[in-house]
Specification:
The chain is mainly beta. It is built from 1 helix and 4 strands.
Length: about 80
């Protein structure tokens, strides 16, 4: 999936957006803040991706979280 091809933003606007890739795994995206809980892969931040409170509200304009929900058990969800 080419995340840069969107009709919501021009290519110039897309480059200026603050973008977060949650649970990046092996899909490190240049120009994004990549976060994952694994230490054996390339990330910008190693942290528990279920708790993003390390970021202030409205820090990011765009959040990409693909193939992450299946790693969260029901007992680890928030009420």
């Amino acid at each position: 999936m080419d995340l840069t091809s969107t009709k919501l933003w021009t290519p110039e606007e897309w480059q200026r957006l603050n973008k977060l890739n949650v649970g990046c795994g092996s899909k490190y995206l240049e120009g994004w803040v990549n976060i994952d809980n694994r230490t054996d892969i390339k990330t910008d931040i190693v942290a528990d991706t279920r708790d993003l409170s390390c970021f202030e509200d409205r820090t990011f304009d765009y959040v990409y979280a693909c193939h992450i929900l299946e790693h969260c058990s029901r007992s680890n969800t928030f009420d």
